Amino acid sequence: MNKKIMVVDNHFLIREGLKLIFENIAGFEVAYEASNGTEAIAQLKQALPDVILLDIIMDHIDGFGVMAYINEFCPQVPVVVLTTVDTGNDIKKMLNLGAKGYLLKDAGPEQIINTVNNALEGNTLLHSKITQIMSTEGLNPSDFNLNDMELMLLTDISKGLRIKDIAIKVHLSERTVKNHLSTIYNKMSVSSGIEAVALAAKNNLI
């Protein structure tokens, strides 16, 4: 069965472009689309997609409003932000609301598809430019105390590997890998893989 995608963007050409991208990818279908947050929320009240591609700047209810609704009423649906907004505060706000990925609109089809796949697996990815923006804020590496295993897992996450792929690579169960990642996030005082990778990059750990 195809994974159903919802595209929420106020630009018709963006929505059509994303539909064209996923039309050529087996297992995906752009089943829902909305031009603003009000339309998106109305559709979410009727049926849930498997993943959402969400812009921020829209009329009526913006992307933050949609994300807040999703966070409260359907948090099981992963969201990938696809936007032109590249300010640190807005990025952090979206991540804190639960976004699984953050891409700028100059991202290529392969990167968009990869990020969506990772979001569906429960993993997080973001545009490399976003990583650079986030890496301007960091802690001292000496505060992290990451061991060799944790550094290796963090490096794998930064490469976009999915949890199940990492588990196979290091001969551990997916649950054990998730536990290691939780420990990493606690040590680094972050709440997601995106933030951990950005912070590690800032401090030259990966």
From TrEMBL:
GO terms for biological process: phosphorelay signal transduction system; regulation of DNA-templated transcription. The keyword Transcription regulation applies. It comes from Weissella soli. It holds the Pfam family Response_reg. This is LuxR family two component transcriptional regulator. The keyword Transcription regulation applies. The lineage of its organism: Bacteria, Bacillati, Bacillota, Bacilli, Lactobacillales. Keywords: DNA-binding, Phosphoprotein, Transcription, Transcription regulation. InterPro entries: CheY-like_superfamily, NreC/VraR/RcsB-like_REC, Sig_transdc_resp-reg_C-effctor, Sig_transdc_resp-reg_receiver, Tscrpt_reg_LuxR_C, WalR-like. One of its GO terms (molecular function) is DNA binding.
